[in-house]
User: What shape does this take?
Amino acid sequence: MIVQYGTFHHQVSSTGIVVSSDVEENESGVPIRVKHSVSIEGRLRNPPGATPRDLDLLIAQMESAYSQVGQDFGMLHDDGRRSQAFWTNASTIGGIRPKFLAYPNYKGGEYWSYRQFQIRVEFYTPYGLEFQYARFTEQLSIEGGTASFGVKEVNYGPGVRQRLRTHTKCSATQSGSAIGKNFFPPIPPPIWPFALSFIEPKITRTIRPKGSRYHRNLVLEECEVSWSYAFEWPTRLDGIPHYALG
Assistant: This one.
């Protein structure tokens, strides 16, 4: 197996990797992304007859490669085909980033025939590609629809309570917001379609992308939509908000 980072290829069968993955959740407990941490350990082997100066060139090539962020990374089969442990930068959130490079030992033939190294690379990937709700809230506000009363002030003494109207119009709003992962969530239907003031709701859409076009890994990790319906009706309306749809 061959470990590749960008255009840099480690020597065949000289390097191994250990992958740990943790699912991260939002404040509502919904999985939103996976954090991957990949530990790389191996040796840079100096060819027979080469000197430490030649090994310096190999070290410089590796350090130059891992000084760059946003490169494709993983293990290749000996014939060059990508293995299951290979990730493209475009499929990540925020890019593939080297975080650590060290040379832990200096003994034996170290720096003459070989050089041991340790590297850690980190990146995030979306948690699944299907639509998921990250958050959903909706509320109803209802006013009027019954008799109205007022107080008539008098010159002396307390005012007199009196009925102003036997019936008032009922005004209501149905508003809410939802955040979807990767896709905009569907907008719930009006609870009282027969009483709409406007046929369509007021809608606001907001995206919170992760990554960048420069690194070719732009992902719409959070897509938020908010809505508001207005209603009017001669008598009192009543109902309960929607739960998350789907």
